[in-house]
Amino acid sequence: MPRVIAIDLGTKRTGLAVTDPLQMLANPLETIETSTLLEYLKKYFEREEVEAIVLGYPRKLNGEETEMTPKVFAMKEKLEAAFPEKKIELIDERFTSKMAMQSMIAMGSKKKDRKEKSGNLDKVSAAIILQSYLDRK
After folding, report:
1. Residue 24: how many CB atoms within 10 A of its CB?
2. Is residue 113 within a helix (H) or strand (E), and if so which, with residue range?
3. Among 31, 40, 44, 112, which is most buried by a count of CB atoms within 10 Å?
4. In whole angstroms, how far apart are CA 45 and each of 31, 51, 73, 82, 118?
5. Domain total of the chain
6. Which stretches make up the YqgF/RNase H-like domain (predicted)?
7. Contact 6, 94 (CB under 8 A)
8. What stretch of H or E contains 77?
9. 3-state DSSP call for residue 56?
10. What is the bridge-based pairing of β-strands 50-57 and 87-92?
């Protein structure tokens, strides 16, 4: 069964998560520079069969758009153009960063690891977005 990949888009860094082959569990994958996202995905799709891309859709608590929302829509268009065979879905990402931080604390991550610039929080946030998508299915 093909996998599903999730993207937690950021201005500088982007967190990625991927399902297991049975699409039951979401696992943090990697945090990359946002500028390299399309090239990274192209290479990843050569190695792994992926049927869908889940993109975190940022909104404020009241449902209004954030400053990141137009960037997410622009990335969605780029993904659709680059990978027309992939289904691309937007998933509400409200609270994912907070939930990611709480889960890292619960797993015993040290404060240094949570603040690390490598983006542990970004890829865990992507995994939460992806798990939300899987739970909805």
Report:
1. 10
2. helix 111-115
3. 31
4. 17, 9, 21, 12, 23
5. 1
6. 2-100
7. no
8. helix 69-82
9. strand
10. parallel
Looking up residue 41, the CATH number of its domain turns out to be 3.30.420.140
Q: What is the pTM of this model?
A: 0.82
Beta strands 13-19 and 3-8: pairing type? antiparallel
Please tell me the distance from the alpha carbon of residue 133 to that of residue 91, in angstroms, as a whole number.
7
Give the number of other Cβ atoms within 10 Å of residue 125's Cβ: 28
pLDDT-wise least confident of 33-42, 88-97, 122-131: 88-97
Q: Residue 126, by phi and psi: left (phi above 0), alpha (psi -120 to 50) or beta?
A: alpha
- Structural domain for 30, as ranges: 3-136
Contact (CB, 8 A) for 54 and 89:
yes
pLDDT grade for 16, boundaries at 50, 70 and 90: very high
Q: Does residue 130 contact residue 55 with C-beta atoms inside 8 Å?
A: no
| For range 81-104, the mean pLDDT | 74
Tell me the C-alpha distance between 70 and 86, whole Å: 21
